[in-house]
Amino acid sequence: MLFEPRQRAILRMVYRHGQVSRSSLHEHTGIRLNSIGEEATELLRRRVLLECDVQALGRGRPRVPLEIDPASRHVLGLAMSRGGVQIGRVSLTGKMLSDPVFQSAQGGAASIQAAAGLLREYLDKDTLAVGLTAPGFIDLTTHKMLFSPTVQTGQSVSFQPIFDVATRVPIALENDAVALAARWALSYRADAEAGGDVLIVRLGDGRLGSTLLINGQPNRGSITGANELGHTRLPVVAPRCFCGQVGCLERICSTEFLTQRDGGGASLTERASAYDGSDAAVNEMIELLATGLSNAVNFTRVSRLVIASELTTCQAFTKALTRRVRELTLHQLETRLRIDLWDRTESQPSRIAASLILAHMYTSRWATLMTVGGELQDTEPAMVGHVDTPAAEKIGG
User: Fold this and answer.
1) 170 & 307 share domain
2) Which of 77, 214, 265, 295 is the most exposed place for a label (fewest CB within 10 A)?
3) Domain at 34, CATH number
């Protein structure tokens, strides 16, 4: 296990407040002062925390505040995609320590080998853990990618070469949409720690991923992956999906769909930016997307729908989409539904991948599955329900 529950409780408080003394940690967490001292000593030894300048507060023993060490250790984010692999170093405070590196690769096996090579190059003694993401379905027990845009239908590809490079360094392997949900949990920690059920939907040109958070934790189901809203199929003619089917929502949300409808040459982003309600093809796309999103809300009964997309800056397009989602949602649910627009989807997938580790460290409800030395560990969320619920905060600026 990367951190014990008491250590995570300490890390959450230190990260949240910046600098915290041992006595304050005792007051906020309810953990015995002696235990606070023991755990803080261990976190100092591992170079996760560091001691700040002494604070003299009148009479008595001066306090030595603790803070997250921003420089000694780092997390690696390793993100696989249809075109290749990106890797980047991220500090324990969520900052990119250097520009990420991208290596192109086509196909699942080539992407695995590229990822293993990059990890071998970047892994060092200061690496605390690795966040590894890939699209599609993943079997964590066998370390195999089962279903992905990078894998031919009916085939599977093993992640084992990556785990062989990591040896004893913990790896959190998840679908990329789940990692985006971890990023959301970090960015809006107060909302995430309040619990509740949230559906986070990532819209992009030719891609639609989603993650269902149940009481702040990702819905894992029978297999690790996104909640495949993008492969919800509607009875319409649309570009064929990589899954082999026609009518998938993620192919409806695409430039190809619009071009198929009217032969236009502009991209989805360009047409969404110029949208004024008169574009018939975009109107059809909005209707179909709203049908898929409202059906998902009706089925899951979530209290919040988060639409994460660069398209959220296209105000008329987004307004029409969210209005139609509400119209198609059952009234009893719609009146309780909060719809948030989130444009901070990040241009650096490696930073999102690293969020799998940071969310485990700093948010109380996020439980992460980690593999250490080939053994899968189920990390339970640490001591939910402490006092001092914070206001919404953001990590990494």
Assistant:
1) no
2) 265
3) 1.10.10.10
